[in-house]
Design goal:
heterodimer, A: four-stranded antiparallel beta sheet, 0% helix, B: mainly beta, five-stranded antiparallel beta sheet
Amino acid sequence: NAGVTQTPKFQVLKTGQSMTLQCAQDMNHEYMSWYRQDPGMGLRLIHYSVGAGITDQGEVPNGYNVSRSTTEDFPLRLLSAAPSQTSVYFCASSYSTGVYEQYFGPGTRLTVT
Amino acid sequence: GQQVMQIPQYQHVQEGEDFTTYCNSSTTLSNIQWYKQRPGGHPVFLIQLVKSGEVKKQKRLTFQFGEAKKNSSLHITATQTTDVGTYFCAGTDSWGKLQFGAGTQVVVTP
């Protein structure tokens, strides 16, 4: 099993550009989520999904869109990148809700100039 | 809403010493999870505590869940250089929502 994979590993964007961060898991997990990690602020939940076709907002959803058309994939879209979105983004999956162990992907380091 | 606070934010430890990091929630938690993130890496699950007053050990790591299920601690004995990293606690509220603390960054001096 590859576990949770994320692409790209690194990305530099100019302000106003859009892009999609990819996340896939091969563990048949229902619950998937996106976090951003900034120094001193821990992991903050952006969006999450409890199953295909179901998504919901987390703590910091503004400027991001998600969709979940399959169990395996959970892409995160930045609509119009801003310097405040410079961060490390982690995708995670688990068997169900937050009650279960979260498996994290390797992360995407995004810089917006 | 639920707030999970972790202290200290930074911990400098001499190799061989013990230290403790603490996690406190403003609300009662269903469970608490602990993760470790090595520098440049991603968070990796360490353990989950569910019962009030529960204590679990993993080699030199001791995890405790408070009686009121609003706080937790991680105690590391005889710190080694392999313990370097950031330790996160994450609490689940009664709706199944998981919230991470800001983490304790551990630096070990040989």
